[in-house]
Specification:
The structure is a single chain. The protein has about 210 residues and is an alpha+beta fold. The protein folds into two domains: about 60 residues; about 140 residues, Alpha-Beta Complex (Nucleoside Triphosphate Pyrophosphohydrolase), CATH 3.90.79. The protein is built from five helices and eight strands. Strands 1, 2, 3, 4, 5, 6, 7 and 8 form an eight-stranded mixed β-sheet that branches. Strand 1 and strand 2 form a beta hairpin. Helix 1 packs antiparallel against helix 2 and helix 2 crosses helix 3. The longest helix has 21 residues.
Length: about 210
């Protein structure tokens, strides 16, 4: 079975259940929506390496109307080189600094925070490069929830290179000399789009 197909089923079932539980006031309806969530969890367990406890935690992490999660990534340049950080996870591959946006935090503030936490550099978000549907970018592995990835062009304003608990190394790379990338977080195509917007700031924001 195509992996993307069963993941789409899981996402749809979880969204139906989550939204139904949020709006339902009838105990019988709520019970049925919970059954739908249980079915989605069983599918997820049988087609992934997640344990039952991990799927329970995953289900409990989302409340209210089901919406995509927000990932932010920052493109910071020194001349014609782009800032990448080496992940302590994912076999030490490289990515743009970034991560999940937090509640009560603007997207621009989120990417600035993530860059400083993972690289040590202080920055200012100067342009939204694009908003991309993670599934359409074919980043692997896939997740049981839907993700929108926001890429920002950011300007350096201070700080210095510093690794963190999430990153083991911080460095700048030329476009034609990229290291092995963490393809669950970023692709060469997306890195090249960052270079394009760095070279031509007036390019319009991209989406989808």
């Amino acid at each position: 079975m195509d992996q993307h197909l069963w993941l789409e089923w899981v996402r749809s079932l979880r969204a139906i259940s989550q939204t139904g539980l949020h709006y339902s006031h009838d105990p019988f309806d709520s019970e049925r929506y919970q059954q739908v969530r249980d079915v989605a969890s069983q599918i997820l367990q049988n087609h992934s390496n997640l344990s039952q406890q991990e799927t329970v935690v995953l289900d409990a992490s989302d409340l209210g109307y089901a919406t995509p999660k927000v990932d932010v990534r920052g493109a910071v340049f020194a001349g014609d080189r782009i800032l990448l950080v080496r992940e302590t996870a994912d076999a030490g591959r490289w990515t743009l600094p970034g991560g999940w946006a937090d509640p009560n935090e603007t997207p621009g503030a989120a990417v600035v925070r993530e860059i400083e936490e993972e690289s040590g550099f202080k920055t200012r978000a100067s342009k939204l490069i694009g908003v991309y549907d993670r599934e359409k970018q074919r980043l692997v592995p896939s997740y049981p929830f839907h993700i929108y990835k926001h890429f920002f062009l950011c300007s350096m304003v201070g700080g210095c290179a510093r690794a963190s608990v999430e990153t083991s190394e911080v460095a700048f790379f030329p476009e034609e000399g990229l290291p092995e990338l963490s393809i669950s977080r970023v692709s060469e195509f997306l890195i090249h789009r960052c270079f394009a917007h760095h070279r031509q700031f007036e390019l319009p924001t991209e989406f989808d």
